[in-house]
Amino acid sequence: MASVPLVAVTTAPLDLQALTAAVAASAAGDGAVATFAGLVRNHNQGRTVRFLEYEAYEPLAVRVLGRIVEEARAAWPGARLGLHHRIGHLAIGEASIIIVAASPHRRDAFAACRYAIERVKQIAPIWKREHFEGGDVWLEGATADPDDEAAKQAAQRIACA
Amino acid sequence: MRVTVRLFARLRDLAGTGELTRDVPGPATVQTVWNALAAEMPSLVQYEKTMSVAVNAEYARMAAAVHDGDEVAFLPPVSGG
Q: Which of A66, A116, A122, B52 has the smallest number of CB atoms closer than 10 Å to its CB?
């Protein structure tokens, strides 16, 4: 079996079990693994969603995912993370992102996992185009700025809430 | 000097292409490249206040220097996850 990278941007369906195993392999003896999967929802802002199309600036996106893993490790020493984001055409119910956070204790595993998804939404150069009944639209959230300390602190507050 | 410009998501749609090359006079910054592009494609200007930029696949500032052969990317607000 090919080794699973801890961070990836891929058009292939995401495999939470494989990523969990990859993170666990580097976290033997830890007491907690928290996982998150973000799925394509069938409705958004009153619209009926047909499917989503994700696009990334891939080389930068992979670097940013690696940066987020490092940030989480700095904030919760001992935490180890895996983070995969899918791009391309995604049907309703498919996973667009999976995150695995392992730590000696559950509090840090949950916090690091939550922090990672918040940071992805803030700074990963990835976009989704929503195809809904009657049209399509590029969704636009945050202006990406990895050096924005206020955004980073906001993500930490949410993670520790 | 010649630079490669990368555009994503709605910026790519507005420009009709995700990648193009442009000659700009040196010494240049990201701002120089953007100004040339915005003059050519006024519909892009609406993103000047909200976009992020990258040089050679690293986040950068508008004042960052750009050299011959560099790849300059303009990124609308992100929506991953």
A: A66
- Alpha carbons A105 and A156: distance in angstroms, whole number: 17
Chain A residue with minimal CA distance to B9? A127
Distance CA A138, CA B78 (A): 10
Give the number of other Cβ atoms within 10 Å of residue A1's Cβ: 5
Question: In A1-55, which ranges are continuous DSSP H helix?
Answer: 16-25
Nearest chain B Cα distance for residue A67, angstroms? 12
Q: List, in sequence order, the alpha helices (H) in B8-47.
A: 9-15, 30-40
Within 8 A of B10 by CB-CB distance, chain A residues are 127, 138, 140
Assembly ipTM: 0.97
Q: What is the pLDDT of residue A79?
A: 95
**DSSP-derived secondary structure letter, B78:** B
